[in-house]
Design brief:
The protein is an alpha+beta fold. Helix content is about 50%, strand content about 20%. The protein contains 14 helices and 15 strands. The strands form four sheets. A six-stranded mixed β-barrel has the order 3-4-8-5-7-6. A two-stranded antiparallel ribbon has the order 2-9. Helix 2 packs antiparallel against helix 10, helix 2 packs across helix 12 and helix 10 runs parallel beside helix 13. It is elongated and about 105 Å long. The two termini are about 30 Å apart. The relative contact order is 0.18.
Length: about 400
């Protein structure tokens, strides 16, 4: 009975109800869209910083990630590989690094050599799938060059590069590489200094047979990589090699602390956005129910005079606001979901106006797109219901405190 009465009371003034309803729907739908776009930006930045180069989790010798010491290597089969084959890890790839002087057609440039397994690396990062290999190039002589580095060296696909460096045994190492393809990681700084080569070729050049600097991993849920890294670190001693080489497991949050701070600031920014937007919506709900209470004061006085308890009258008004908020939430879910779906499927290309933006160790591509996340729907809808109830509490409290005698006398 109370629910039915609340529904009919809500539509006694349809114009005012529709105006408030439209304001709530538009604000919540736009908030859903905005959160979806922000999540898309964070996903792009995190993806460029981890899936484009580093990986979500990296296993290496202690101190290697900060020093890049050539001699901090371990045998690529020293740890039991069954340790990495557990739920949550989708792929892993061994790597070896070195630094060398590259000579092209007309110029020379220092560069970082990253030795990768061409079969495993595409499962962890997205550097290799973008290149076009050259037919007839020997496996041991292939190289993939960053576009910026290739421009400086003035080389293209099919050209040769001279590599000179110092091997691990102190000897002078040099060899020829044929450019099998170019890549663009989205980070101009990385593309100016990075050269991808075959892992076995680099192991031979550096006189480090069977040795690697790190194992890079791809996980199914990147935001929970820290928890998985801790679990691996705890299990590592029981799988450690007999020679006692210590290994440590780092997640992307430890390797990229600025990215971790960016994710944390995103959560704070989302809360601030919800607070600002719904503060304006709360004023609309407050105005609607205050006007409703003033217009229906005589009616409320009659109800109180005929025996309705003040608490029941207050619950009636709160129920009206809950119905209004529920209807607004449903419409906002449909409208905001449609907008988010459009942005997720099509998006907006801004490449004609701006280029990639480097931020927090990642690269933000020149596009706007949204992603579907449960939190981006639950937070606006839950906030809308909460705002509706909180904003209507004061009018409901005022109605419950009316004195029937004063109201009926017109005071």
């Amino acid at each position: 009975m109370l629910l039915k009465l609340a529904y009919f009371n809500l539509w006694r003034n349809p114009r005012r109800t529709l105006l408030t309803l439209s304001a709530l729907v538009v604000s919540a739908a736009l908030l859903i869209l905005a959160l979806g776009i922000f999540s898309g930006m964070m996903a792009d930045i995190l993806s460029s910083a981890t899936e484009q180069y580093r990986g979500h989790i990296v296993v290496s010798r202690p101190g290697y990630q900060s020093s890049r010491d050539l001699f901090l290597t371990f045998d690529q089969h020293s740890a039991d590989w069954t340790l990495w084959q557990q739920p949550g890890i989708s792929a892993l790839a061994p790597r070896l690094r070195a630094f060398a002087l590259l000579s092209g057609v007309e110029d020379s440039q220092p560069a970082e050599l990253l030795g990768v397994d061409v079969d495993r690396e595409p499962l962890v990062t997205r550097l290799l799938p973008a290149v076009q290999p050259v037919g007839g190039v020997a496996v041991s002589g292939r190289a993939w060059v960053g576009e910026q580095l290739a421009r400086r060296l003035k080389v293209g696909v099919g050209d040769e590069l001279v590599v000179m460096t110092q091997a691990a045994d102190g000897s002078l190492a040099n060899d020829l590489l044929t450019v099998a393809g170019l890549f663009n990681s989205g980070d101009t700084g990385r593309d100016r200094r990075l050269l991808l080569v075959e892992l076995t070729w680099l192991q031979g050049l550096m006189v480090l047979p069977g040795r690697i600097h790190e194992l890079a991993m791809r996980v199914e849920r990147p935001l929970y990589a820290a928890q998985l890294a801790r679990q691996l670190q705890e299990q590592l001693p029981t799988h450690a090699p007999a020679k006692g080489v210590a290994l440590e497991v780092d997640d992307w949050g430890r390797l990229l602390p600025q990215m971790q701070e960016a994710i944390a600031s995103y959560d704070v920014s989302r809360a601030i956005l919800v607070l600002i937007l719904y503060s304006a919506a709360a004023l609309g709900v407050l105005n609607t129910f205050y006007m409703s209470v003033l217009e229906r004061s005589y009616e409320f006085g009659m109800l109180l005079a005929t025996g309705m308890r003040p608490r029941r009258l207050k619950n009636l008004i709160l129920l009206e606001s809950l119905l209004l908020g529920s209807l607004a939430s449903l419409l906002a879910l449909l409208f905001g979901g449609a907008l988010t779906h459009y942005m997720a499927e099509s998006g907006i290309d801004l490449s004609d106006s701006i280029g990639p933006i480097t931020y927090a160790g990642g690269s933000l591509p020149p596009r706007l797109h949204a992603v579907h996340e449960v939190g981006n729907y639950l937070i606006p809808l839950a906030g809308l219901l909460l705002v509706s109830l909180v904003a209507s509490y004061l009018p409901a409290r005022r109605a419950a405190r009316l004195q029937p005698a004063d109201v009926l006398r017109g005071n």
